[in-house]
Amino acid sequence: MPSLTPRLLIFDLDGTLIDSRIDLCNSINATLLHFGKPQLPDPVIASYIGDGASMLVRRALGDPEGDIHDEEYVTEALTFFLSYYRIHKLDFTYVYPGVIDSLEAIRAAHPDTLMAVLTNKPVNPSRDICDHFGLTRFFFQNYGGNSFHTKKPDPHGLLTLIAEASTIAGDPITPAQTIMIGDSDVDILTARNCGATSIGCTFGLAPHTLAAAQPNYLAHSPTDWPRILKT
Known about the structure:
The longest helix has 18 residues, at 71-88. The protein has 2 domains: 8-19 and 93-228, Rossmann fold; 21-88, no CATH class. By secondary structure, the chain is α/β, with parallel strands linked by helices. It contains 10 helices and 8 strands. The strands form 2 sheets. A 6-stranded parallel beta sheet has the order 5-4-1-6-7-8. A two-stranded antiparallel sheet has the order 2-3. It has helices spanning 21-34, 42-46, 53-60, 71-88, 99-109, 123-132, 156-169, 185-194, 210-213, 224-228; strands spanning 8-11, 18-19, 94-95, 114-118, 142-143, 178-182, 197-201, 217-219. Helix 1 packs across helix 4 and helix 3 crosses helix 4. Strand 7 (197-201), helix 9 and strand 8 form a beta-alpha-beta unit. The model has no long low-confidence stretch (mean pLDDT 93). It is 43% helix and 12% strand.
């Protein structure tokens, strides 16, 4: 880790702070059943997670590249999925062991380091989940996949958080002083696209994507975060 203590930590949500796999898979299969489509194995659905709700639904419908031209059909499926997930998002979802202890350790060791969430999950369920599990107290902001006109790995959301953190801190925070923590290549590429450091979480939903993305550091458990940060 660079000798300069990071001034800003940005966390992904699904596969990084929480394990939401079962609720997302159940919600997709409920959507497929509703629209007369065959249900899919959980590992297949889990491999579709990471690029936002719309792409998750499109991939489950058999449209991996987002080329379905019947946008009304896709919109109906997405609407059903979001409505179902809104109700069932906390059925089986849990915070990974060690997350809260690690966030508390980081805050105790680096009280001036700001933390936020940047996820491709829609912002309202992201905030609701963080509220439910008592995670919101750690973060000055929580942005989702529909908070901006683009999603990760576009760096717009990360750059927005850097600007907001700079305002809170009272002086500029640079990408070089920022770390993005996530479980997939999407998060690693987001960091790289704006010049931030990355930590890849191998315990998440998409560890198979990390090798090609080459994060700066690997965390095999949330308890590795303080160690990597030299807390």
